[in-house]
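Reply to dn_fold:

You asked what the input looked like. This is it:
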Amino acid sequence: MPNFLKYLSFFFFLALQEPLNAQEQIPEKREESQCMKVESRQFDFWIGLWDVVDEKGKFVGINKIQSVEAGCVLQEEWTSAAGGYSGRSLNWYGADAKWHQKWIDSNGDQLNLDGGLVNGAMVLTGETPSKDPLLPPTKHRITWSVLSAELVRQLWESSNDAGITYETAFDGRYRKLTTPTAIGNNFFNEIAGQWIGSDKSSKESTHGFLSVKPIVAGRYFALDRTIIDAGVPRIQIEEHALYQYESPTSLKALMLDSLSDKYEITATGEANTITAYIGDTRMMVMHLVSPSELEVIDKVNQHDGKWSELRRLVYKRVKKMAAGK
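and this is what came back:
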């Protein structure tokens, strides 16, 4: 075999190997993640939107606790009634069989807590450095106790003598806020949440992001869509539409986009499909293939009564959102 053919064969072999090697480096998904364990649900009683008062009943703030990252993390978002102060935390059950919380606020203060259930209450402890280097760190002990389905007590205690004695820093009551939903099961409730999509039928790298959120007690649905079209230069198109059901099978909407266009939309719905006519020239068909897959087809009117397909994106669910949230 001539030498150049040997080199050609060698490089051809390498070209075949590279994607295989890259594929082998992708970590396999674990059969059971840490957050699938029953212990990871121990803090779920804290999930919700809460009106928070102190021990005297004075309103001190709003706290919103959400389950995020496929149920693996609880995210806290605190807003003080005094204004000018907020904070957030991430909470999760770790591989060390302990609960962990990482808190940071708008003052830049941080607090790391660890612990678990004690007699049915969540008890997390941690410490922060003392402002006086000659004194021991300040110890913190925070206890969340369920008083009823709509009421949770949060007791924050601190110690400046290495845990010998504790004083109450905050003794609050969380009162759950609920909003009645107006509409039962429908297509938009089924697709509520966040989605990421790509074009599976083309080698072009067109992709998109889609978010559907029930608002005003589930009477309306906000659909936000971002499309990144392939090409040079790459173009990002943003759309915002507000849908309202007029009947179980018909909807109307108003849509604005980043091209400064405004459209009125009429749509018809079935169990798993919505067909939306955007003005006179565009059509969007959304089809829920499965609870985790959504197909969105955009079409344009060729002014001869025929519709031609512009793009077809397959979206995968990132996060599901409950109705009315």
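Helices lie at 3-24, 187-191.
Hope that clears it up.
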